[in-house]
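Entry 12.
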Amino acid sequence: TSDGSTAKFAVTGTGALTGTTAEFSGAVTIGQTTGTQTLLVESTNGYAQLKVKSGAHQREWAVDTAGNFYIWQANNSIRPINVSADGNVGIGTSAPYGGLHVNASNYAESPTINKAILVSDSADVTKYLILTYHASADVGIIQGLDDSTAWKNVAINPNGGNVGIGTTLPQQSLQVGAVDTANDGVRVTNAGSLNNKSVLGF
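Predicted 3D structure (tokens):
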């Protein structure tokens, strides 16, 4: 029963219950007495949940009282996938801030990089592009990687189109337009000393 008082289990259509196996054609509703969906699970006093379990592995599909949908991984007590009531999708977070919000703490080899989003080619899934945010360095990162063993090159617009840094209207293959004209345009430094630099600006 879903409300603690009256049992609500209804089948609309034809079917039979034999031993521990139920076979129905039509609509099966749990928590309601009528429904048109193939399977409807409804709760009137809390979370509506559908649980799937295999041995020690358990997953739950649920909708909470605020209208958020999520998949619960019970053995690790985490919500790997969440869809908020306003339509945002979260992976690794129960409070997604945008259309797709990925939160991860799985790091690549030194220097450590949070592997939040990986994009690879099916021909070789061990090589991929990382899109993430490095919290301790407070910087966004786009990085090519060979399965945590070697850094790989990254090409931007290899087939055409211009690239703009600090501008949304690049007129050349690479155009750098500082937001603050007092800042340097392009700065080239020595990795050993940031004070040794060459500046190209206007």
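Annotation: The mean pLDDT is 75. The first strand starts at residue 9 and ends at 18.
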